[in-house]
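Shipment paperwork, digital attachment
Item: protein structure file
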Amino acid sequence: MKLSGKRAVVTGGGSGIGLATAIRLLGERCIVSLWDIDAAALRRAKASLDGIGGRVYTQVCDVSDSASVASAVRNAEQEMGGIDILINNAGHLAPGDFLDQPVGTWAKTIDVNVQGVLFTTHAVLSGMYERNQGHIVNVSSAAGTLGVAGLAVYAASKWAVWGLTESLRHEAWNRSKRGVRFSTVHPSYVAEGLFCIA
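Attachment content:
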């Protein structure tokens, strides 16, 4: 896919991998809509990206809430004229051994890391199918490829992201929608964000 002029949504775009991705997309002359639950992080991100140039929009969005996602999709489509690329980057991490974590902690991890990807993907995929063009990139984790003590629920959620991505790829092929592509990336430790290195 040639990126110049493409319209991209980046969830969790206020910092870390999401913000770094937005910088790269702007460098490729994409139009970018950053989504994040943290309004202050979005303001800081927007200020830093304005110096790069290009068209950048922001949207406060809780990806674990289907109504919030539906509203963000409508706004992004109105502002950018459509969505060609979806980067599902928003994530939640609560480390700790499985038996030491309250159920509410598990729920938030699953809601953000799994439900969030399901909601955003479902909201944009039909439009991509109609055009037979688009790319959905799901940010999994190195913990989505192997078991990690102290990260059982997080790892399970990221394995789910990988499985979803591969399943959707096959569904697109079965529908003869080969212009709609799916990718997963599996980052390990990063300098900023969920898995920070000191």
